[in-house]
Design a protein that fits this description.
alpha+beta; 3-stranded antiparallel β-sheet; 28% helix; 13% strand; extended
Length: 299
């Protein structure tokens, strides 16, 4: 029979009480106040805005895009969604195209819209260049030659042939990826230097498609990782202590903001305002596939 006397009971540290949500909230506020005093917390007064800060204006992802040119007074005409447009809305739509297979052609009704699983990478081999600081003892290897990329502070060496990527196309299957390659080869002249390979590809959701606070956490954690890498480089260079402390303060500020954002619950679908394209040119969706490249035919 197992003894129940006090001497037979396992010994160890006493169980710690789980902090209440209120205690956790208070600790987070203390951390943010100490490490990131510029972060606004609930109840903080909003900073005073100037007359041109646009406090009453709604965000427009097309704002600031000048691809439509300017008027006679030099004022931008906005976005016309032409090729090469880089406004926030067009960049989002361009990013979303990689989420679906690009085999076939929309114009003939054979465009596949299955989810992406692979991508075709178009590349060709070209000579690479490597810059070395002159203060490291480097000397120009091609004096007097017409083609020289060296500068007064750097020396540029050829680093050999390396693959240079020129574009990618998404595909839902190996068969569709091979179809894309055949189509690309048909567009280029025989003997072209263009080459192709297929690789697996997982489409990562855009920030617009994620619930809060995931977009904020994605950027903050990336910033913290960059800060650690920067600090690592500083320590190996025997940087002065004030510079190291400045970099540490930046890291602490990012970590405090990360902890604060992570304390917020996920704003799951149905609770958040779904992303809607801002007012601007109409974005037409491709027609539903009816040809041999439909989802059922993807295999």
């Amino acid at each position: 029979m197992t003894s129940t006397s006090p001497e037979a009971q396992p010994t160890g540290p006493a169980a710690r009480a789980v902090p209440t949500p209120e205690a956790v909230q208070a600790a987070l506020i203390t951390l943010v106040r100490a490490w990131s005093p510029g972060t606004l917390l609930p109840g903080d007064p909003l900073p005073a805005l100037g007359e041109h800060d646009g406090a009453d204006e709604e965000f427009d992802a097309y704002d600031g895009c000048c691809c439509a040119g300017t008027d006679d007074d030099g004022e931008p005409l906005g976005c016309n969604c032409a090729a090469g447009c880089s406004c926030a809305a067009c960049s989002y739509f361009d990013y979303q195209r990689h989420a679906r297979c690009s085999a076939g052609a929309v114009s003939i009704g054979t465009h596949c819209t299955a989810e992406t699983a692979f991508q075709v990478v178009t590349y060709r081999m070209q000579h690479g260049l490597l810059a070395v600081e002159r203060e490291q003892g480097a000397a120009c290897p091609h004096p007097g030659e017409a083609l020289c990329h060296c500068t007064p502070t750097t020396v540029v060496h050829e680093s050999g042939l390396r693959p240079h990527t020129y574009g990618t196309r998404s595909a839902c299957s190996i068969e569709h990826a091979q179809h894309i390659i055949r189509g690309e080869q048909a567009r280029h002249r025989p003997g072209s230097e263009w080459q192709y390979y297929i690789e697996r590809y997982q489409h990562i959701p855009h920030d617009n498609d994620l619930p809060d606070p995931l977009p904020q956490l994605r950027h903050l954690i990336g910033s913290a990782s960059n800060s650690v890498a920067f600090l690592t480089r500083l320590t190996t260079r025997h940087t002065n202590a004030p510079d190291l402390e400045l970099a540490m303060r930046q890291l602490r500020r990012t970590l405090a903001q990360t902890a604060w954002e992570a304390s917020h619950p996920l704003d799951l679908p149905g609770n958040e305002d779904d992303f809607e394209p801002p007012s601007g040119p109409v974005q037409e969706e491709p027609p539903e596939p009816e040809g041999p490249f439909g989802h059922d035919a993807a295999g």
